[in-house]
Queue: 2 jobs
Job 1
Amino acid sequence: MHRRAGSGLSGPVTHPPGILEPLGPGLARLLAPNPSPFTGEGTWVHLIGSDRLAILDPGPADPAHLDAIVAAIGGRPVEAILVTHTHRDHSPGAAPLSAATGAPVWGCAPLAIPGDQEAGFDPDYAPDRVLADGETVALAGTRIEAVHTPGHTSNHLCFAWEHRLFSGDHVMGWSTTVVIPPDGHMGDYMASLQKLQRRSETLFHPAHGEPVEDPQRLLRGLLTHRIQRERQLLRLAGEQPGTVEELTGRAYPALDPRLVPAARATALAHLITLEEQGRVDCVQGIWKV
């Protein structure tokens, strides 16, 4: 059972980790054992190809999880390990999986993150090849396109294959996406949603949650949600200026305490973008219209 809008986990796990699930010809997935209020049931690892493979987002560097990926590969050649972004639930498994399979690591650029935010990122990620926006690579007997979608992180990539888009954390199937400054940027996130609206893929495979069979509807909903949150924060700051903590408390009443830090970060991301647009000011930590 999946819950949306960042409400946390509830109900039984519907996908046991480490079990290969076919999704169609030349595509399968398995779940990493990292459930949390921020990852849902865990991170999905996608295997693209039949006789030859590309592995997308290997997930955490958990030995049992990596053994499950190797078992799912079943001795088939792995031509590349693709990475959407360098959060710790996505990229740390790339290096040990590369060592086990001999496959190069391709995908997003590495990041140097200052301060407290560094804890959420993988500092050891070192790709063999950084893929540019719109770059198409021949892998696993097919062609896969890298699509730069900054916002959730500045280095985030999606990957397009046939009519499918592997949307990483930019578009998730169970929850809205957290945007945490300074690396995360709300203006970039919303622009990237609009970028995906202009594309033709009809099925999204997120790194968290179930496949999205009507992605255009979900993209419209995500943009509407963000616009409504932006308007709410403008209204609250106009009615009574306050700190990020105060505005977040008024914007997200009765929020699960585990999700308060993420809500504050996302509210701050909205406020920073509004400040860049000249619609709010921040004076000594107090946000006002």
Job 2
Amino acid sequence: MAKRNIIPIFIPFAGCPVKCVYCDQNQITGISSTVSGEDVAHQIARGLENGAHIPAEVAFYGGTFTMLPVEKQNELLQAAQPFIRSGALSGIRLSTRPEKLREEDFARLKSYGVKTVEFGIQSVDPDVLMAAKRGVSVEEMDRTVTVAKAAGFHVGLQQMIGLPEDSFEKDTKTARWIAERGDFARIYPTVVFKNTELYAMVAAGEFHPLSLKEAIERSAYLLDLYDAASVPVIRVGLPQMERSAYVEGPYHDNFREFAESHRQLAPILKKYKAVESVEGSHRAVNRLVGPFGYGRKALEAVYGPVAFRSKNSVEEELQINGEEYTHAFN
């Protein structure tokens, strides 16, 4: 998926109807959006003035957009209409929960220029959904995604790994479900924040988040799965935040880069008895080497010193011991 020029509008946790165990309870149910239509128009104008490439796309993030009062939804969407009519915006995208949406809801959103809808799926395992207190069933998620696709929307689906009652097998099942339905995906590792039920579960010894190593390895496999299904993954790992913002869990600023390195690393370790040299395009070599030399260190821990050589090439080619290496998912 080509990278879009997005102007984000944040409506933090507005409209959310439940208290998932991983969300800060002080920021959800009962707090209405403080964003007005005037705010939206101002932020779009500022985004365009600050060099946004025209046509841009405005995105409503952070809350459960379709569970805001319909009047509030329409107010926020209406603010974007002059920019759409002028050609400054190509459309609207929004993030929401996958329930209580009908054909008429999607028709209304489409009439305002909404083209992309992202749903937080998190997991398709009933036990995980119950343990996370998601408040939505797999059947409801399936119905909503089907209706959205039939209405012509570009659909993004988000999954979380490492939730209570989760497992590698359940994450794989969720990814396959998403890959069969979504146009693109996101992978978020479960991280523990204060003022959440998950935090209390950790304190009581009832929950242990994935280690960074486990989350990286699991995400690498899921990236392979999505890639094999030709479903782009537009984010792996949580957005950048301060270390003090969370308590425990597999967070890292370079999380995706670690996962991409492991994707290349794991098959090499499995296939080769000896590795003396790695050569390829700058991008391919850098991806394998990984952040802080993650992949290089892992290779050299097994094979001893390895010669890495980069060359100017637009192709994502990589050679191991002088022979072409192809990373294929199996």
